[in-house]
Amino acid sequence: MKVLLVAPPIMDDLFWDKPQAIAMDAVRECPPYGVYLLQAVLRQAQHEAIVADLIADGSDQIEPYLKDLQDCGLVGIAATSMSWPTAVSVIIQLRKLRPDVPIVLGGIHPTMFDYYILNTYQVDYIVRGEGEIAIQALCAALERGDGVENVPNLSWRDRSGQVVRNPIGPKLSKTALGDFPLPDFSSLPMKLYKGLSIESSRGCAFDCSFCSTSYRKTWRGMPAEVFVDRLQQMMPQAERTQLDMIHVIDDEFTMNPKRTLEITEIFRKRSLTPTLVFDSRATDLLHEGLIASIAPYTGQFLVGAECGYDEGLLKIGKGTTTQILEDAARMLHKHGLSGQADFSFVIGLPWETAKEVRQTCAFAAHLFATYGVRILLQWYCQIPGSRLWEADRDAGLVNEAMYNNYGFFRDLYLFRAGVKLSPKEIWQISGLVTSLQTMSRLQYPDRTMVEYGHPEPIALFYPEEVMTRHPDGLASLREVAMPEKTLQPIRLDPVSSRAISTERPLRHIGA
Ligand code: SF4
């Protein structure tokens, strides 16, 4: 069977007449691993699989793939919540171009909202959770003309229109993860992506309250030797990228520090010198010898620091403290690795007042000023799937229908359902961070050491101008009484005249 697999980018349409890629997909950090892996799995099962890499295209348009679309027997689309509006755009186009082709969705957003999506959009199937086994079983069933009752993880509609949820199959073992063929990146456009992508483990042993990643509380790491074999096989293709780096897409690459040490030991024995991008926890970094052993292979890494006060870290449940974060930053500085480390903080968590947000900003500033780590300050965003989101859904504050349109993250209601600070407090914090950014530029004129984005809903609905109440309205009254002869069109400037950016903070790959 011929299958067209679509990878939609994260997009927005606020400032442009057509949607544009934003955030990590605007800078094309790395190719979408999951979609290319499914392509390899399907090819191994003797299917023809084509990837419509819309992230590489920087577009939501499926028409360039019309030829493949016309003779394929199945279209698969993978989507997170952030890329879901683009997936919706693709579904609408597909239904115009090929009303008859079965469409299967996968990824975290369709997994969470299978009932809603199957009842709302013209799609046929949703794979919940891991897709490698399910998509092969689905292709086989469609080819045979059988029913899909036995396809694991599949949600679908029966003849009466009722949504049926097939049972979830066993999670892939750590050995099975390493048995899949590697994605084929040999036809990626030259020097388009910053790096390649690879997986060394799936899931995470923790369940942080704000985190919406899949497979929390289940971590499965490939054996060190297997991962290095796969990485070694992929390394020559990294030349196709801008920075010759390989992005380990794991939620937490160093989750098992002993395995990380084994991996670096194999690198050393085989004289391999990959440049890796990965995510890590501060606690893991303090494992004896880990920083020194991983340093020669580190291009950039992100430490999820999250909070600058211990009560907040306890509520998040990541198993770290401010002392651990500081110790990790100190160790990185000692080993000359702090310049490659981005410490990421979440501000405006639902329980936080302005005081706690300031504490986090002050702690982050301290780590940057003392140890030279870069800091990312990101406002809490109500992304589905986390424990906090589930609690808000139970309270009737959020639901699955709030993520269908471009720019859902600009929705004032959605933002304020999560962040409980007043617009005035948020503006004050933005002012504080902007001062911090100015100071950081004095010390590091060529590098952005403090990444921050003022929340778009506040910039749009509470621009700084409306935050200042004038002492009396007489001046305005006189202006109204004597209007100007020529009426000028009203120009809406969503951001104040102050130099405050609403860009999303991004990790610093290659910066
Ligand atoms: S934030 Fe990191 S440590 Fe916490 S659950 Fe998510 S992936 Fe795991």
TrEMBL record:
Lineage: Bacteria, Pseudomonadati, Pseudomonadota, Alphaproteobacteria, Hyphomicrobiales
Annotated InterPro entries: BchE-like, Cobalamin-bd, Elp3/MiaA/NifB-like_rSAM, Methyltransferase_Class_B, rSAM, rSAM_horseshoe, rSAM_sf
Keyword Transcription: no
Coiled coil: none
PROSITE patterns xrefs: B12_BINDING
Cofactor or coenzyme needed: [4Fe-4S] cluster
Single GO molecular function: metal ion binding
CDD domains membership: Radical_SAM, radical_SAM_B12_BD
Taxonomy, superkingdom: Bacteria
Protein name: Radical SAM superfamily enzyme YgiQ (UPF0313 family)
Family annotation (Gene3D superfamilies): Cobalamin-binding domain, tm_1862 like domain
Keywords linked to the UniProt accession: Iron, Iron-sulfur, Metal-binding, Methyltransferase, S-adenosyl-L-methionine, Transferase
Domain B12-binding: 18-149
